[in-house]
Design brief:
Layout: H1 9-18, E1 22-24, E2 30-35, E3 38-44, E4 57-63, H2 67-77, E5 82-88, E6 94-98
Parallel strand pairs: 3-4, 4-5
Antiparallel strand pairs: 1-2, 2-3, 5-6
Amino acid sequence: MPTVSTPPVEEARSIFSELGYTVSGGEGSEFRAERKWRSVRVTALAESDETPDDGDMRCFVTWDDHAPELRRKLRRLDPTYEWAVIGVRESGDYEVARAPPSAAPAV
């Protein structure tokens, strides 16, 4: 089992590289993944740590057993950015959960 206190940074980089994204920047647990017109800020978290308040498109990568709590936290916070959570399993497999669609603005 991976060390819980260590964010899955290498796993996050590997996932995005395998998906065809160009991975750049970040010495720590955050980097940018770009493909075509899409630019995503990726943050690897050990648990459901602090989440940023800003951005356009964000993806949080955490260990599989922490992913449900992180998804609940993001739903409660309802950030202004589009987000997804990737839960990485010990085997290297992963599951992606996206933000629920936002309600259409009132006219």
